[in-house]
Design goal:
single chain, 2 helices, mainly beta
């Protein structure tokens, strides 16, 4: 995760300096977060949370841009009875996950109202709900790497968006008995400043 930060920072600096002459906008965003963790340890259902953050729009051409974002997200996820069987706990638990997410999205704009977006998202775990483990050991890895795709509607200064993220790495930091991967749907509203 730390190795990816330097190339990401260099990419951001080059992009910002290139896009500065073309135009740059900043904004705020927020909305619903619908998340599911796959694996035998978790119930196969989506859980609901929220996300809040900021974004910038870097115009490269009239049809192409980059949208870096940073936002906080939080969701509560239920464990399944398999969690108890795999790890020997007496009762089921809810897991509260709080992340700071940093997506870097390529925006393809067929017209000024619609943008198709895709790119990587880096998630940094802020709260890993250690209460599910009696010995206080961390259950979740500190980082989550995802690929994200979606659509954004641009109406004046308003941004309506829907995005889908698929986690690519195993989040289980206990052992290799069960692989935990995330799937997230984000819907929300943003405003450019």
């Amino acid at each position: 995760m730390k190795k990816a930060i330097l190339p990401l920072a260099l990419l951001m600096i080059v992009t910002v300096s290139t896009a500065y002459s073309q135009g740059i906008k900043f904004g705020i965003k927020g909305g619903a977060e619908i998340k599911k963790l796959s694996g035998k340890s978790f119930s196969e259902q989506y859980s609901y949370g929220y996300h809040l953050g900021v974004f910038s729009e870097l115009k490269i051409t009239s049809h192409l841009g980059i949208q870096p974002e940073i936002f906080f997200s939080q969701v509560n996820i239920d464990t399944s009875s398999n969690f108890r069987d795999l790890y020997g706990f007496k009762q089921l638990s809810k897991v509260k996950l709080s992340y700071v997410n940093i997506p870097i999205l390529l925006s393809i704009k067929p017209n000024k109202y619609v943008a198709f977006q895709a790119g990587p998202q880096f998630g940094i775990l802020m709260n890993n709900s250690n209460t599910i483990l009696e010995n206080g050991q961390n259950a979740f890895k500190k980082g989550d790497f995802s690929m994200l795709a979606g659509i954004q509607l641009n109406i004046s200064k308003i941004r309506l968006y829907g995005k889908y993220a698929v986690g690519l790495n195993n989040l289980n930091d206990i052992d290799e008995k069960d692989k935990w991967k995330s799937q997230t749907i984000q819907v929300g509203l943003g405003f450019t400043l």
